[in-house]
Amino acid sequence: MGITMQLKIMATRICRHTAVDSWQLFHSHLDEARRTKIENCLQKNQQQRMIVGDILLQYVLRHELHREENRRPSVLYSPLGKPSLRDWPDLAFNISHSGEWVAIVFASCEVGIDVEKQDSRIFKLEACILSPSEQREYRAISSREAFLCERWAMKESFVKLIGVGLGYPFAKVSFHEFSASEAVTFYEYKCYFCKTYLLETLSGNKPYHVAVCSETYNFPDELTILPFDNLIRWARGATKHG
Questions:
Q1: What tens digit of pLDDT does each residue of 165-186 get?
Q2: I need a labelling partner for 188 at 20 to 30 A (CA). Which of 2, 52, 66, 165 fits?
Q3: Quick check: 126 and 26 in contact, CB under 8 A?
Q4: What is the mean pLDDT of the chain?
């Protein structure tokens, strides 16, 4: 894809008290096909996360990466759901959302991202998430809930990168840590790098884990937090100048 750029990772926390007119503003930036797909989702919270993901995609393309074409980005999907940008083949991107957070990553190589809220219910997924070597590591530590949630996010981001669909058996993937927040895995004779970040919750309790997986090691030290009000102001300005 040409010159390798540092991954751009951005997250925004949806404001619970966002006014109806702001959601209508966001909605006006979506094309008809995307509106229909979102409206077919029955859960209001999920609809909102999907809308914010689309607006965040447009914001980063135009405001951060200066792709200034006056049209909405055209997103193509592989048969297993991996997204790509029709008009900018030099850019790869991926979006994830969970609870109150929506996150996006851009890169000049294949990339995947996942956001997961730490929750004790994850314990029942232990056998599905961890490889045999990871299970041995898991039994030797005390912070098991955080470890499981982090590995879940890492593996979701990995399968989103390679585009095999989320039905891929996570237990066949084994990550090997080389720092507190960085790890590597191997797939079809190639290594893939992963870095994890933490996001706070409004209640200040258990955090969200963000994992980004990439073909190259080119991660920022921290992801960028975009205040939700900034996203609303940008959408309002884009409407005036669109």
A1: 878 999 999 999 999 999 999 9
A2: 2
A3: no
A4: 92
